[in-house]
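Q: Two folds, back to back.
A: First:
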Amino acid sequence: MAAKITYRRIYDDSTAQDGQRVLVDRVWPRGMKKEDAHLDEWLRDVAPSTALRKWYGHDPERFTEFRRRYLSELRDDDHQEAAGHLRELAAQDKLTLLTATKDVDHSQAAVLAEWLAKKKR
């Protein structure tokens, strides 16, 4: 049975359907207390580089190029260990990727969910 990979905002309430909850942001979300996050892991090293994150600025018009650059970064040595660990988590039952981004469909969490789904095929 294939694992279910989803993504959503860390500010949303956790549910029993989340499975493993992994924060994929480089910086801790504003106003979120660690005890309220209900995280299994925080994989900041799988997040986009600071330079890429700042360039993107969550501008939906830049998303296609952001996605291309981020997927390229995931192949870099700086991301290999964290990306490999995330693939291991995705091979298990359920995985929810969390981000503080308001527009989750234009976030690194969305890119990672798609990337992980393709890696499993």
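A: Second:
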Amino acid sequence: MELIHAIILGIIQGLTEFLPVSSSGHLVLAEEWLNTSLGEESNLQLAFNVVVHFGTALSVIVYFHKRLLALFFSLFDKRKKEEHRMIFFLFLGTLPAVILVLLDKSLFGGQLDEILTSFPLAGAMLLLTGVILQIPQRLKPREGVVTGKRSVIVGIAQAFAILPGISRSGSTIVAAITSGIRADRAAEFSFLLAIPAIMGGMVFSLKDLSNLPSDQLVNFAIGGVASFLSGLFAVYLVLAAVRKGKLGYFGYYCFAMGAAALIWYFTYGNSVAA
């Protein structure tokens, strides 16, 4: 992988991991359009994905470090009931994705991985994400808090975001708002829920780092830094959009990208691997 491609893909991963426009969908499209798919070197691609996901996880950890420290230290203080409930809600919200991954591994032999590289599916699901992002604008303002039932609903939305083109942040924020959670609380819960999701995926993929050749260390490191910086910027941008009720604007972008991807695919379909 060339350095410029590592930087571009790192920026795309960082921005789209938290912007409600689907990181997996954009990486599928970008790898095809930039011709950066590594083909026989698929193990190298997997290793790069681990590095850039670490960068995005670090960005949300840095932004919410005070909140995360409060949750951690509450484990040693029985009086911190609110923090204890939040930890439990994050656990509940993480369960659906964990169950989906375990079912895939045990029943389907990990075949979902093949779906995650489908170019036309990524385009179609980007259109669906565009529709999803229009929902909050058509609802009355919510004032609720995170509860056990609502955290499970958000967790199910996160599990569906395994499909390329379905935005994890977008689907979880919209699911949280739709279930009754106030917009700013919904965004915070979505971002906190991203940490175990991203880190959990990395744990399953750490073995892929063993395939990283020494001549790619610098490129991968710079790609990771690019994903961290762009991810941090994306967190600020999404939170501002949620507070101002502008989340739906990202939906118009998803419509444009999804349509462009499908038009390109059906025009040059013979040269695109589904």
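Q: And?
A: The mean pLDDT is 86.
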